[in-house]
TrEMBL record:
Domain Sugar 3,4-ketoisomerase QdtA cupin span(s) in chain numbering: 7-133
Species assigned in the record: Kordia antarctica
Enzyme Commission number: 5.3.2.3
Protein name: TDP-4-oxo-6-deoxy-alpha-D-glucose-3, 4-oxoisomerase
Leading EC class: isomerase
Source organism, top-level taxon: Bacteria
Pfam families recorded: FdtA
Keywords: Isomerase
């Protein structure tokens, strides 16, 4: 679990521009892992927060398909905040990074591509447990 907030990357999703509207395509190596699950968040009430967890092994890419939202990342030492508001830009989150999503605009849609199918065992849902787990792994190396 030696990943840090510095490992988070913004990736460009190819965009084909046309006077009739734009198309973005995700295929091949656009996302640097084999996608095993796709889900999306929408109709988020004003002031609501999502996320509030880290994954032990799973990697994810978040995309603001519509509207905007902020993602707060924590690695136990450092924090980083990224505004997502472009449907042709994804945020690649490696495993073992805490994430919280907030400040959703009206009509925001967050699309998520995940490297694994849902498994509750892959989630760390308590931030103190997350910090302890990261620290224990650092000490064991």
């Amino acid at each position: 679990m030696s990943t840090t907030v510095a490992d988070i990357q913004l990736i460009e999703i190819p965009k084909i521009e046309d006077f009739r509207g734009n198309i973005s395509v995700i295929e091949g190596t656009t996302i640097p892992f084999k996608c095993k699950r796709v889900y999306y968040l929408y109709d988020i009430p004003s002031g609501a927060k999502r996320g509030g967890h880290a994954h032990v092994e799973q990697h994810e890419v978040l995309i603001a398909l519509s509207g905007s939202f902020e993602v707060i990342f924590k690695d136990g030492t450092n924090n980083r905040r990224i505004l997502l508001n472009k449907p042709n830009e994804g945020c690649l989150i490696p495993h073992a990074i805490w994430r919280e999503l907030e400040n959703f605009s009206s009509g925001a849609v967050c699309l998520v591509f995940a490297s694994g199918e849902f498994s509750e065992d892959d989630y760390i849902r308590d931030f103190q447990d997350y910090v302890i787990t990261k620290e224990n792994v650092k000490l064991s190396k």
